[in-house]
């Protein structure tokens, strides 16, 4: 098939590259000239494992070509399917649909009657209700016939996006306007090689299916964090509690990791946006409001505890943050807890040094949080500090030789914001360890080697976007998708 993808952020670029790999002829259209130039030069504007090699392969054989907005007519005029994947976050925790509306105004009049328009962006339900009328009015105004319009929500996770696209557990098609079924038929053909159920339904149901999945995952995380505080109050260990819960097939063991909460471009925004949208129509959402409140509270609790653990030395408090990206396997800083925590600590008068394995994350964090110092290695970050806070559960932090690192910090204190390190091993290495909802570890009678302390991680589904404002102690961290 001939396919055009409008918008080459995380969602759009992964979609374009994977469809090209499937053998389709794909035209990717990007409005940002800087991003377009980088893509044409073989440099990706963000990190996603395997994506750089895939883009290099499909651009080399010209199954994927990049176009500017000025080249939009060439990109879409012969397309069987045009996929729109532009951002819909307003940067302040709400929706914005202006970019989508402008994109539709520019794209829809150019499409032939045989082209199916597919929206992959996450949209507010209220906008979806008017989408068929919007596209129809544009076509009528141009004196051309109606076209099929569908939603195709994405369920990919940053760090695993290629796998999730190629091996999805479900494909959802939302029917906006498709009276003869031609759009659904072409999309079923597009996904014909995928071994997953293709679920077609009204567009508003499809949109809510995406929101509902992320809202439920966010709720599980905030539940685990509230549970952790109860465990601390009564002397229980949340790790044991959620292990038992995870064996219940009705619950499962994913997204029950207590700690500093969730970040990224999907979960925080979609919780906040759903709460605000429900209030706009007079429907309170107390459960989701609590999920949102708990998630933001965890970041403040982490900063409080780290500042307390560091004490108050003669030359002030100096802390290290290990990890900046919102999750391992990405350099994405959108609504990353690290930024809020760093800004909070700096506002308290602490010096803050941070390290992340991704150089792009380090460089961008230093720009976003005035006063934040970034280090080129974990060893450099923790040298001379009063306390160490684990923020992102990169595996390399568990694999470090903590015994050899014992002499670097001024005070050997670790606050594990992801409950990802092995407490007994860190204590055996000479560190004071604290986690979230964890019982104080008892030193084992036999020495525990700290040469390779494993990190426990769990996958998380998040997605994507572009620019971010400078962040200070009181600035909003709801960065745009």
Structure characterization notes:
The two termini are 28 Å apart. This protein is an alpha/beta fold and 481 residues long. The longest helix has 32 residues, at 203-234. The chain has an eight-stranded mixed sheet with strand order 3-2-1-4-5-6-7-8, sandwiched between helices. Strands 11-10-9-12-13-14 form a six-stranded parallel sheet. It contains 18 helices and 14 strands. It has two domains: 2-196, NAD(P)-binding Rossmann-like Domain (Rossmann fold), CATH 3.40.50.720; 215-434, Rossmann fold, CATH 3.40.50. The protein has helices at 10-21, 33-40, 51-60, 72-76, 98-107, 125-141, 161-166, 182-190, 203-234, 238-246, 267-280, 286-310, 337-347, 359-368, 378-382, 395-399, 402-405, 423-428; strands spanning 2-6, 25-30, 64-68, 81-84, 116-119, 149-151, 171-177, 198-202, 318-322, 351-355, 373-374, 387-390, 413-416, 432-434.
> What structural class results from the helix and strand content?
alpha/beta
The count of helical stretches stands at 18
Helical fraction: 40-55%
Q: For the residues shown, what is the average pLDDT?
A: 90
Largest sheet, described in full? 8 strands, mixed
Q: What value does the Rg take, in angstroms?
A: 24 Å
Q: What portion of the residues fall into strands of 2 or more residues? A: 5-15%
For the record, the CATH architecture of the largest domain stands as: 3-Layer(aba) Sandwich
The neighbouring-strand order within the major sheet is 3-2-1-4-5-6-7-8
CATH level 3 topology of the largest domain: Rossmann fold
The first-level CATH class of the largest domain is given as Alpha Beta
Task: Give the CATH H-level superfamily of the largest domain.
Answer: NAD(P)-binding Rossmann-like Domain
Whole-number total of structural domains: 2
Coarse morphology:
elongated
Secondary structure tally: strands: 14
- From the structure provided, what is the oligomeric state, counting identical versus distinct chains? single chain
Low-confidence sequence ranges? 443-481
Distance between the termini: 28 Å
